[in-house]
């Protein structure tokens, strides 16, 4: 596995598509352990126009969603492809989410994520979000791998 995934490679691992595919790149990948996801927040991002007019801010719930997508991509890239075939990763819990600074357009949001542990189909993660070295948010969450409904 490469230590980097581009958007097309991420699309091959996740079912998300625009506008809900938030992560643009996954870098610094340590198999099933950690990675950094890149989210390019732009003036064209789908949430900017309405959240909030004249003072755009990336919604905290979308930062949490980006954490989840990054964790799903890290996990999917690290496990056996046959194990992950016809599966989805669903967010189960979000704990200790803190939003410290607003994420505004025209920035590169870096999400440093870590797989804390796994037990069967349940995985626990933690992450921190940064823009230019400044912490914007952090959270802990759990996800599970489930069968796709055909």
Topology:
Elements: E1 4-5, H1 7-13, E2 25-30, E3 34-41, H2 60-78, H3 81-84, E4 87-99, E5 107-119, E6 122-131, E7 134-147
Q: What's the CATH superfamily, by name?
A: Hotdog Thioesterase
Radius of gyration: 15 Å
Percent of residues in beta strands: 35-45%
Q: Averaged pLDDT, please?
A: 94
Q: How many separate domains make up the residues?
A: 1
- Please identify, by name, the CATH architecture: Roll
* Terminal Cα span: 29 Å
The sequence of SSEs as H and E is EHEEHHEEEE
For the largest beta-sheet, the strand count, sense and barrel status come to: 7 strands, antiparallel
Low-confidence stretches: none
CATH topology: Thiol Ester Dehydrase, Chain A
Number of strands: 7
Number of helices: 3
Biggest sheet strand order reads: 1-2-3-5-6-7-4
Report the structural category. alpha+beta
Oligomer type: single chain
Specify the overall morphology: globular
Percentage of residues in helical conformation: 10-25%
Return the CATH class.
Alpha Beta
